[in-house]
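Thread amino acids onto this structure.
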C-alpha cells in the first residue's frame, strides 16, 4: 500500500471517529439529520397524491406481469410474490387510512 493511500485511509478513519464522538457527546448531527428529514418530508407532502397514484399503477403493473408469467407457464418466485402482496397491502392501507397510519407512526 502506498503512503498516499495510507494517509487517505487514516484521514477517513480520523473523520469517522470525530463524527462518532460528536454524536455521542454533542448531539448536533442527529439534530441536523432530523431537520433535513423534516424538510424532505415537507417537500414530498405536496406530491403525496401523485406518488400514491404512481404506486398504485406500478403495483398494478406488477400484478399484470405476474399474471402474464403464469400464462406463459412460468411460475413467479415466492419472494417476488410475497413482496408484491406486501407492497399492495401497504399502499392500500396508505390510501384508505392515511390519518390512522400517521397517528400510529407518530405514537
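Threaded sequence (107 positions):
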Amino acid at each position: 500500500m502506498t503512503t498516499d493511500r495510507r494517509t487517505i485511509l487514516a484521514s477517513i478513519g480520523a473523520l469517522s471517529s470525530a463524527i462518532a464522538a460528536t454524536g455521542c457527546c454533542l448531539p448536533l448531527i442527529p439534530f441536523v439529520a432530523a431537520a433535513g428529514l423534516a424538510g424532505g418530508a415537507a417537500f414530498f407532502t405536496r406530491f403525496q397524491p401523485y406518488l400514491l397514484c404512481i404506486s398504485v399503477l406500478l403495483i398494478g403493473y406488477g400484478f399484470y406481469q405476474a399474471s402474464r408469467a403464469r400464462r406463459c407457464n412460468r411460475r413467479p418466485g415466492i419472494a417476488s410474490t410475497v413482496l408484491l402482496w406486501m407492497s399492495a397491502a401497504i399502499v392500500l392501507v396508505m390510501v384508505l387510512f392515511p390519518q390512522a397510519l400517521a397517528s400510529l407512526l407518530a405514537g
